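cron nightly-structures :: item 1 of 1
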Amino acid sequence: MKKYSMLILYLFLFVYLEFVSKVLMFNKLIDLRFIYTILFSLVTALILFIVSKLFKAKTNKIISGILLCLITFFYVFNYLYYSLLATPFSVSVLELADQAFDFWDIAFHVINIDLISILIMLLPIVLYFTNQKVFDYEPLNKKNIACLICTTVISYFGCLLTLNFDKENLYSAYNLYYKTDSIIDSTDVLGVFTTQRLNIKRNIFGFEEQIVLEPDDNPEEIPEEITYNQMDWNFDELIAQTDDSNLQNIYDYLKDQTPTNKNKYTGLYKGKNLIFVLAEGFNSIAVDENRTPMLYKMIHEGFDFTNFYSPVFLSTTGGEFQATTSLIPTSEILGLWRQTAPTFSYAIGNAFTKLGYKAQSYHDWTYSYYSRNKTMPTQGFTDYTACGNGLENEINCKWLPSDVDLIKATLDKYADNTPFVTYYISVSGHAPYNFTGGNSISIKNQEAVADLPYSDSVRAYLAAQLEFEYAMEALVQGLDEKGILDDTVIVIVGDHYPYTLTVDEINEVSTYERDKTVEVNHSNLIIWNNKKVDTTINKVASQLDVLPTILNLFGVEYDSRLLIGNDIFSDKEGLAIFSDRSWRSDLGVYYSATKEFIANDGVEIPENYIQNMNVKIANYFTMSKLMLQENIYTKLVER
């Protein structure tokens, strides 16, 4: 019987899995740049072929089976991870080990939804194990191994040479391999396996991503009557004082940024108390005039932000990082946050403490989850209480805890000591959304949603969010009883959309048809005080804009150039950035996977607008990392 070389199988497996991954993750077939994936797959296939031909036939057969299984299961895992968190797996995420709870807690739900896709990815190893006898496992002699090693080395350098044919655009194969750290774009262009290899290398040996030169968008003349949110740093002097090229590039970049203008809302809430809530899974589909009257009231009696987005970046911890630091999170950036514990001078705990506020934070789940026992102090919350360091004595901390209990147990601890800034992280709205025992909060509120014309998962989600509604009712009532409701501002932002619901399930409730890249992230930002504002804001905004908007409203002095987001009330163009580097601005929406820009009706698009925006966003990712890596807040604000 004719025997086939394992090299053919390895190459087929990689190309097959890369193709399937591209279709499933990016919803597109192969393009011309898929040739880079094929070429790098050939190199990897040669390496594995050599490894599986070094021993006796029986041992080689076992090694081959193990390698094929490991490769296939990693591709499946990477796809599930992407389906869940909208980004491919990165070894940096291993530094966020406690995120595994979030992943495995709802992984079975994702597996059930994507079962057909998973089976398609498993097809090659099923075929292999049912046809093992047709492959040749005999060992190679030393001469053949030497020839194969030479072939592998030549093939590898040949691959590197081909990268020079694609150097032009920002996310070209060449730039992604050598200069730009975008794991999503790299996966799309270079493939899953090559991206993971680069990711491991960069995590071990480091990687310095360069700031890209942007076109000068500074106005030629700054009107004297306009004042800006900026400090009087002399960046030219700072550049001259350091030999560190990284710092020089950062200061040069910051010097060229236009700060946000102060405006009619600057200082509107100066001196008032602030309660900031990061709401688990909160989304605009959860709000209904009759079902959630308090949340509806807060949205429509406060500032109604009609184009606000809560983009998914690595689950809750990514949403928290965006909203509280105004920087873009990646797994590497979040790892730096936990490892280095930098000072975020403009985070509300730090910023308001300097104004004489009492600062405290609360979470009705494990106090060390997402390393919050380490990250809370970086934002100025040294008085942080959660389950495991005191809150378990006040509420039932068994999964799932009640946000209502959280509010009732903590309000008296700070309400009599004004002015205060309090940060709540809710948990009652957490997935999975079902009535079968996995979500006690959904079961608790099941009767209230029993008659709604939606699927079980959607009704379970709405039931879970009802607990947050009741918590906000308890908060407002408690503040009113204390006589401080008029002097308190409540800010609520969701950590991410309910990503265990499919887009079709979300569209059961949504008032318009949402896509799965941009509009699925559409949500509400609540900034509410008992004295009505009734103002509609149509400008595009996102979690990144929450912190600078709060600082402006409370009249806090800060330098807006040190934040990625902008005060929503400033004259800066509205922008929402998503994890795959797609974006939506006031002029239209750009989908990075297809490189398609869809302009809003009736708007005029400036020349080179898309290219300039992509450069700007690439720099936002780079600067978010450099701000932590180089400890810029300490070097500038805290010096």
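cron nightly-structures :: done
The chain is about 45% helix and 10% strand.
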